[in-house]
Amino acid sequence: MRKCSYGLAIIIVFTSLLLVGCGIKETNVETYAKLKESQPQKIQIADLSDAWDTILNNSTKAFIGGHPIDETFLSMVTHEYGEKTVQEIASYANFETPEIWYELTGKSIHVLWYDYCKSTGIKNYSFDRIHEIDIDGEDIVLDFTGDVSFSDGVATTDYMDHQIGGITECFSEDLLAEMRSADVMMINNEFAYTTRGAALEGKAYTFRSAPSRVSLLEELGVDIVSVANNHVFDYGETGLLDTLDTLRGANMPFVGAGVNLEEARKPVYFIAGGRKIAICSATQIERTLNFTQEATGILPGVLKCLHPEIFCDVIREAKANADYVIVIPHWGTEGNANYGEDQVALARSFVEAGADVIIGGHTHCLQTVEYMDNVPIFYSLGNYWFSITGEMPADYHTGLAQIRISKDGHIDANFIPCEFSSGVTSLLNNKDKAYSDIIDSLNSLSSTALIDKEGHITKKQ
């Protein structure tokens, strides 16, 4: 991920505002496209004063992103983008879509509001989980993997430790380049970073790694990890707290667990290409056991979604403050390539709460891709680079879920087939038989999505 630092040169004394949350669901870019095609009757704007009055008095909550904008915010926009731009924005202020802000400034209303809050130092706006990144192309590219483990005593870690290049020799050169080139690269961190604590009594498999191995994430190009899983608590509260401290010390964003419920439920936001993207995570697992502690008002733990009410509130809040929400659930049944009705029910609740993409894990094998309404759902990415014992696992299929957000705001879903073999995960060529086998298998299990030979995913008509 390429970080950027920039400030707004504003020659105005801004007043402080209290940020008022508002659960507004964004109207998507397709709506604005239809409005433009139908040439809606715009408001006639006389001058800048009229433009400000129109925006402040006529805008729907959706149009201003639910933010408490006022004259000082409009002063910033005017100063940065000019009077004509603000007058043009105002001419659409009675329409539901906020996309005109992006069309004319190159930034969504959520990003403009973030810029304003950062410039004025509004105290009630949290910046600790917002990360600004540069992008190389027009598309915003986000890559996601399944389970990754650097756990002590397992075959993959032992293999890595015997390679001159360490972790970089555990992935094919072209796959490593793909991971590092993504604007946002996310893994499921399926273990604890700790040398302390005791393994949970009665749990069949427990995984931990020395905190120093957190540096491997940067070598792989990782920008964010999910810790909402059933192994981050393998060494109890001590192991979990060490894990969170380790990730914080490495400046590695994480989602899905915390020192209490307040932290565990917080999304991470990325600002890229003028858009604001929220990522939030929770675990359904365990469904019948209770090894992994759930975060509460006073206890550290993971955010759980077996009963999804709290997590759906998280998604709704993220949707009110971002252009896109990507939901990462840890769910399903291990070893089962068929997703279950429990996953479908949870997916429905996530979609209704505002999820734009759902990318699942936990099953240790690939599950297929479906569409629910217009939301792509990767039910499980399975293992990516993962073993559970000192014996090297048999070869398995895996892959990357890739989400591309185009300049016009369209979400493009892709699957990049990979294969794990003898300690190395490799990118497959679309001429490889294994590549075709993976695509054919996923297509045979899907009733609503189609993956073509290039890995592009479309909704079946």
Automatic annotation (TrEMBL):
| UniProt-listed CDD domains | MPP_CapA
Q: In the record, which residues are listed under signal peptide?
A: none
- According to its UniProt record, what is one Pfam family this protein matches? PGA_cap
Location of the Capsule synthesis protein CapA domain: 141-388
Family the entry assigns: Belongs to the CapA family.
Q: Which PANTHER family match?
A: PGA BIOSYNTHESIS PROTEIN CAPA (PTHR33393:SF13), POLYGLUTAMINE SYNTHESIS ACCESSORY PROTEIN RV0574C-RELATED (PTHR33393)
Recorded protein name is Poly-gamma-glutamate synthesis protein (Capsule biosynthesis protein)
Q: Identify the species of origin.
A: Pseudobutyrivibrio xylanivorans DSM 14809
Print the organism lineage. Answer: Bacteria, Bacillati, Bacillota, Clostridia, Lachnospirales
